[in-house]
Amino acid sequence: MSLVQNVPFFSIMLSMFSGIVSSVLPEKWARRLNMAMILTVGLMSGWLLLFMARSDIGSYTYMMGHFPAPWGNELRVGVLEAGMALFFCIIMLLSLLGGRKKLKGEVEYSKHNVYYILCNLLLSSLLALIYTNDLFTAYVFVEINTIAAAGLIMIRQNGRCIEATVRYMIMSLLGSGLLLLGICMLYDMTGHLLMSNIKEQIRVIMETGVYRVPMIVTIGIMTVGLAIKSALFPFHSWLPDAYGYSTVSSGAILSSLVSKGYIFLLFKIFYRVIGFQYIADSHVLNLLFLFGLCGMIFGSISAIWEKDIRRMIAFSSVAQIGYIYMGLGLGTEMGTIAGIFHVLAHGATKSLLFVSAIGLTDVSGGSRSFFELTGSAYRNKVAGFGFLVASLSMVGIPLFSGFISKLLFAEAAVLVPNWKLFPTLIVLAVSTVLNAIYFLKTVIRIYTPANREEVQAKGYFSLHFSDQKLYCVTVVLFILVNLILGMTSQPIIALIAEGLHHFA
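Given the sequence above, the corresponding structure tokens read:
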């Protein structure tokens, strides 16, 4: 085994070790260690992605401790896993950089260490969900992820954040419980926890007809568990407050990465554990398809009526998560590819929206009200431009990642061989119109010149590049990531397709 093939193990361990070390470091050094760790893991992930893209091995397993199952644990790596790990590192790094200055005012100085510890644990858990080939290990890191995410929401320690954390924990623990129950049932029927071994046993179960009904129930339980944790409609009630009232970096990370980590785990269960053909036969995909369509409409309508810009962006996430589940629910390879690409597109765009929104509220007296943001794009030109680009991407304007996502969903719908064609195209069109209503009306609001006397009376101020250099660089990099996804989509789609082939 070459050195590069050890990257997944070292990435997870480095993230966890950094969290431990950060607990005894001063705030400045904890922050530097956190940034250095994310950058290092990102570079290693890029190295691994390059290796996997150039090699002919397709995928490989890494046996931790060189102990075979059931005593040891396995990591399984392909081009898709390496690519997702790299993307998660990029988005987390930029999200933390974008909210770094704001963190000083949002969180007590004495708790900054804790914040970076939680970020380190969160990244390690996300990497483990991406790489693990063991269901119980996946569950352990799901719980680590849950605790870290709850800490990031609650760290401001005001009434709104504590209430949001309680809601998040109740729903999240319900989802975790269902996932654990499903894993236990799978273990009872198959006698294995490694994904590849379970899949082989499930093939036998489905061919013989033994445990067929319990297997369908198990699939349903695990799917509902992860649907709750990823905020699929109608299990989304915890999301607006959790994303809307946390710190700006936390909101960006939670919306872009945490929910996507659970969705990626569901992809793994469907393809690597159960087998996608058996999932299709169970009609679970039909339910995900319908809930995805409902989420696309409900999330968009809720965003239209929301007057708090942060909560509006949060409700938009409900709609975008619906897109992913709708693509998965199509039951085709093209639908899955579209869903995975939308994970990337939404991750890059939604983080940019959160980071840009905080820049607009800062020059509006700290108010998040839609009506108080009038002319804010002129007072903070960088934040205004960032919000404009992100909004255009969400609506689906060409050159941006969101356009490619919607094009892929439409293409997947046209190729689907059943009744799902027209519902998909109709809801795609309606959702796009609704997206345009709430995003473009906000863009118009922030670019509408404000009354000068009113601005002076309220004490609003302007920010220039020299006042926020790091913030400006972060916004530019977010825009660059979005443009790369939108303008060089074909190689990325090809990598996703190749990765999905080996993924299964």
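The radius of gyration is 22 Å. Try to locate this feature in the token string yourself.
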